[in-house]
Amino acid sequence: MNHVLRVIAVPLLVSSCLTDLATARTLYVVTRSTKVFRLSKRDFPSVGLFATRDNGQSWEHFGWHYTKCFSGATLVANGQRVYYLACGNGVQKSADGGQSWTLTTGWNITECLKVVVDPRDSDVVYTASAYGIFKSTDGGKTWEEKNRGLASTFTSAVIIDADDHETLFCATEAGVCRSEDSGEHWEPIGLLGLGVRTIVQHPANHQLLAVGTEEDGVWISVDRGASWQPANNGLTHKTVYTLAFSPKNDQIIYAGTFQGGVFKSNDGGASWKSVNTGLRVLDIHAVLVDPDDENTVYLGTLNDGVWYSNDGGSRWRFIGLETSQVWDMFFE
Amino acid sequence: MAFYLLAYWSTEMTRLHLSFWGAVATVLVCACCLASTAEDDYKGRLRQVLAWADTCKSEGFFLAAAKIHNGTNREEGFHSFSRALRRLEKSPSGMFDIYSLMISYLAVRHQLPDSLHQQVRDAMLTARFYRGDTENHLTMYYTGLYLAAQAFPDLPAERWYTGKSAAENMQEARGWLDYWMRTTTTIGQGEFDSPTYMAFFLAPMFGLYQWAEDPVMRDNAKAMLYWLIADFAVEHLEGMYVGAHSREYPERLTDKTNPASVMNGWAWLLFGRTPPHFNDTLIAAALSDFVLPEVLYQIGTDRSTPYVHTETKRVRNIIRFGPEKNPPVYKYTYMTKDYALGSMMGGGILQPIQQHVWDVSFVTKSPHASIFSVHPYIGEEDLGMFFPEEMKFALDEVTRFHTYYGSENKWSSSSPYEKTFQHKNAIIVLYDIPPGTRFPHIDAYFPKDLERREVDPSGWIFAQGGRAYIAYFPLKPYEWIEEAACYRLRSYALRNGCVVEVAQQQDYPSFEAFKQRIRSNTLVRDTFDATATVSYTTSGGDVMQFAYHGERRLNGVPVDFSEYGLFKGPFLNAELGSRRLFIQHAGQGVVVDMATEDRGLILPLVSCARAPHPPALDGSLADPVWDAAHPIVLADAIQGTPPRYRTEVRVLYDETHLYVGFHCEDEYVWGTVSKRDGPIYEEECLEVFLNPSGSGHQYYEINISPRNVVFDACIVNDRTPQRPEATFKSLKEWDAEGLRTATRVDGKLGAPGKARGWTAELAIPIAQLYGTPHRPVQPGDVWRANFYRIDAPEKKSQEPYAWSPTARKACHLPWRFGYLTFE
User: Fold this and answer.
1) Which residues of A touch B176 (CB under 8 A)?
2) Fewer CB atoms < 10 Å away: N or C end of chain A?
3) pLDDT band per the 50, 70, 90 thresholds, residue A265
């Protein structure tokens, strides 16, 4: 039967020390492709949305196996777990815990790179796409383009301000933009002309924002986007695809780069150190810090699956999805 | 045969609701009457495709369907179909699968066992077809989804892989198909003229034409088939898709017979100029009743006169690093029977990794049939412009899957540092590569099996490919690298380029004469290093000045790309944004009209020849001057099917008159009305509807009976495509003053079975017609017109014929008139 949750046996290259990885938290991993993916080939591993509840000892796959996915989001609505996936085909949704899926968008909303759900209104969903920002106010039934004022319609990421759900921040190909009216109007607020790949807000210190860029490293704002400062001391690789704050410590930041692996800052971005011990590839597209344990960190690599550290990045261990291009990760 | 109430034309009150097939069929009728060889040959090749499928060991829905259709190997076809379905469940499936599945399924569904029906229904949930991200992907995908939604309207949302209902799937599919058709006919295809991918637009359109139940979609698909085949035909030369291409793979560019260039198969199927090339996409045509129009066959094969053809296409969706989403691409092709020189002008990156900017392709027995140059560019930006993935990583990934992309030796490339300027048989190609570019050289491809390749002390390289003489002047020093099938001309200067002129062997008494002529041509390149500017005077005496960072000037006049039109040339013409394509050859053709109604129309076109002298008007059509006219044949006025009797119409003009001659076969010619402007349309008559202004709201109707009685009127008409049932008035007080007419009955008037036909001649004074584009008429003027015949085999019945069928029981629908173009 289609769409049902399947248990996938994933070969693990690292078989030792798995017992110390146990956690109750479900980790979701969104993969775009695999190193050997090609539609014209008939045998290759699945791609899409995966979950593990035991730090990679087993993985479950949800939904389509062969569509390129870039990011995901999950929430519980009406007692059912809801998933959204931002995909090349558009935004997919499951409202029944992954049993069945709907491609919510039509032919004209494609290349969706990020999807976020308003935590205060689960019917409000935004997706950042190669064609701009699209918004749904009915849980994905209908979508509207929200591009007025954007510096560029190529948008890599969008986030909802933790204090004010009408305020959005958006990473575009030509800088950071902000909307204070739920996407109706946008204004550029920094890094004009720079390709911005990711934007994050500290879960506790909401004044603190950070962005990763295509060529210009990390920039940080301590005043909720009003001003931005480069934060690249020690960051030897300036193509930054992903950033993650430690939820409990706003001085700890992880940066995932292209070909430079992971960098960690313990001083709010004032300086960075490479923390790549154990990694086999250095193309990082997702970093996730456990909200309860700042030393527990997950990495999503491009073409080498998911990696884990329980010592704040001092050493990384492979935990699964071999050859996968991990684009995004999130917790339940 | 349909019979209609008396006075059908004047009342138009009782209407039939008919699906529209008529206008299109007119062309077929005309083609039938002119010649059936091309159509018969095409049908023969379709049979060859089906026969090949029976013997083909490969698998796939098309092949399985063909086996089932043929009936000779039906059980194997069922098994093959089932295996293909099972593969969908176990492995990735996508756009290539869903469209071929649905076309194949619909073609043989009445022969399938119940188990296979169920498997196909189940596949709508289990297969999870990937849509893809290119224009051909989406066209295939949505064709498949459209046909699937039509086939399984009762499947609820939870039984579809999309999670949407059949109606929602249908709506989404129609949305893309409408968008793609509108865009293609307005600003051109983004994935254009690809020897590989054009097939994946054609095959879906054959499927929609054949299997869409909605007549609007069927008509649209048929119109797009005309459009796409015409687009291919005009750049087809002896099996080759010549000119510049948006996308093609290197190994296919250097081997013009490579079967992976799927259009090689379509070239054979449509035009039959090569040995058979089979591929499974051809089965979509073989399972269809589409008939190749004679005019398209002629355009694809008539190379008797060299011609220039220009086009505007567009860049694939640019998602970043560009000011426009779809900037225009300007194409130029010079075609002869021996070679074609084609290029894209404008410069810049048009497509990621696979664009082919220029070449000269020549007719030869060798598969290595072209010369071209390329800058093997590789960069993040050309990927980032079109793909949403991380650019630096995408570079690695594309290089992994398309290994040639990362090669300095690649023959297919999208370089931002390459520009061309072509005029007829000459082209200047310039490169200005910035320092630090990864592959800082240009390569030119010279097949090893050229008849000649000579390096001349003058600096020119002279070559002969087939019957084409080719002169290539490298602007900078170079070296030859011998490879398996070619000599690679490599040059490392960053500011670089070449000048190329091509000629037919027949143009010169000898190869030496060609060389001598080229050597004597003026090539100014003194300031090239400083200004990247070159000037070349062609053998035809035209001066081409090209500044890489400036203008292209021809004989001192800047080239204006806005004159290129969507199509412009002797065979195809369409204004940008018009959604109307004029297709003509030898005075006959059609207009594909996607703009007027909510569906594609195919309206007839005839070229009106200038009369060397006024024809003698004696009613007989005996004056040889009528031979100058291109004969047109009338069809059933609604359906467009062949009528009971043949009716031929000829039209000529001069400074003062439009001359119209009718020749009607008939066994019973009759008429009773004797008074001018009497109701001759209630009996037998011939009708000329002229709308010189093209407005459709005011035009002229001039009718004549076998008794040479005239009815003429000025028509004011409030009808539009949106209000086809609005009113119109016949202002009979208008008379075409100076009108001269004559008729002649071959046999006995008014006696059933006692006649063989009748003829009529009209000399219509143009001065009496208001709204003509020019007075006197000028070559190139276009009028809208229709010609009708009311045949009444019995006195209480009428059978209306028309040149351009109206698809309704009405003749006063001026947007359905044909096109009269003046020579």
Assistant:
1) 107-108
2) N
3) very high
